[in-house]
């Protein structure tokens, strides 16, 4: 018998004796004879050079050293169980690590829910999450920084990626109630929109360089961070579109209001699953790709 395997077996017998409170009950639980249990404990004591149980008692009572070693033995057992679980996952092809990039417009509550369930389903997979805007998602797929991407529409899609629709996020045009556009009676006209600074989400990606998405005003501020855009809107400077879920509390409290732009009062922002065609995915990636689909 190999030395490492014997140590693992020794610790299992030791903890079982402690848990059952009896050599005979430990033998029954381990499906072996009491003599095997006694021999294994004696071998472990000999190997460690200490006494684990007091020999003057009828029932097995741990010595002081035995109590100290028990905690370590249980810790090693837990690590062995975790190692076996990981080994089983590896045999099934489960990834050890997965990198995902998600469009900043993706509904936050749904993303959080999926990630929590992913952690439960794949506790041993290290997950790297990136949040990007516009072409930044596609860029990270193309340069192989991430295996899975959730992106808005890109025209045209490169031939090297596979694209599948996930659903859409709702964007709404908002401004502070102090902003002049918030106080327009009736529908805000396009000419009125053009006269006020629009805050536009942008990125530094070459893929979407010089491309505009939903820009109507002649004067714009381009901001690469959605949080900064949100903060500026709340101050009363400029107007712009935001994911409804990210401004829902502001709409409830009146910190922001939805501008009446007629047919543009609500905008559907299509989101797609993007992967490299040549990329082979394991069970964790397949699970994530399926669960990220946005409920209607």
TrEMBL record:
Pfam families: HTH_1, LysR_substrate. Belongs to the LysR transcriptional regulatory family. This is HTH-type transcriptional regulator YahB. It comes from Paraburkholderia haematera. Transmembrane segments: none annotated. Keywords: DNA-binding, Transcription, Transcription regulation. Residues 7-63 form the HTH lysR-type domain. PANTHER family: HTH-TYPE TRANSCRIPTIONAL REGULATOR, LYSR FAMILY TRANSCRIPTIONAL REGULATOR. Gene3D superfamilies: 3.40.190.290, Winged helix-like DNA-binding domain superfamily/Winged helix DNA-binding domain. InterPro entries: LysR_HTH_N, LysR_subst-bd, WH-like_DNA-bd_sf, WH_DNA-bd_sf. Coiled coil: none annotated. The gene is yahB_1.
């Amino acid at each position: 018998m190999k030395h490492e395997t014997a140590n693992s077996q020794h610790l299992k017998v030791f903890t079982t004796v402690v848990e059952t409170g009896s050599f005979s009950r430990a033998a029954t639980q381990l499906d072996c004879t009491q003599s095997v249990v006694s021999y294994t404990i004696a071998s472990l004591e000999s190997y460690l050079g200490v006494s684990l149980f007091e020999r003057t008692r009828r029932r097995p009572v741990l010595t002081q050293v035995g109590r100290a070693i028990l905690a370590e033995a249980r810790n090693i057992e837990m690590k062995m169980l975790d190692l076996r679980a990981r080994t089983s996952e590896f045999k099934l092809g489960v990834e050890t690590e997965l990198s995902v990039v998600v469009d900043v417009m993706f509904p936050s509550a749904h993303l959080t829910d999926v990630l929590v369930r992913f952690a439960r389903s794949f506790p041993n997979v290290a997950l790297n999450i990136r949040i990007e805007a516009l072409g930044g998602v596609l860029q990270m797929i193309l340069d192989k920084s991430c295996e899975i991407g959730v992106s808005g529409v890109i025209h045209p899609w490169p031939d090297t990626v596979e694209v599948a629709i996930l659903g859409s996020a709702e964007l709404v045009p908002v401004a502070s109630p102090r902003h002049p556009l918030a106080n327009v009676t009736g529908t805000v006209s396009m000419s009125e929109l053009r006269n006020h600074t629009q805050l536009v989400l942008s990125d530094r990606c070459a893929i979407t360089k010089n491309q505009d998405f939903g820009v109507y005003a002649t004067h714009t501020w381009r901001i690469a961070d959605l949080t900064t855009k949100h903060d500026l809107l709340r101050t009363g400077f400029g107007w712009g579109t935001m994911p409804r879920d990210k401004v829902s509390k502001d709409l409830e409290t009146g910190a922001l209001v939805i501008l009446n732009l007629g047919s543009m009062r609500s905008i559907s922002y299509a989101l797609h699953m993007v992967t490299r065609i040549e990329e082979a995915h394991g069970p964790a990636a397949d699970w994530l790709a399926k669960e990220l689909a946005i409920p209607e």
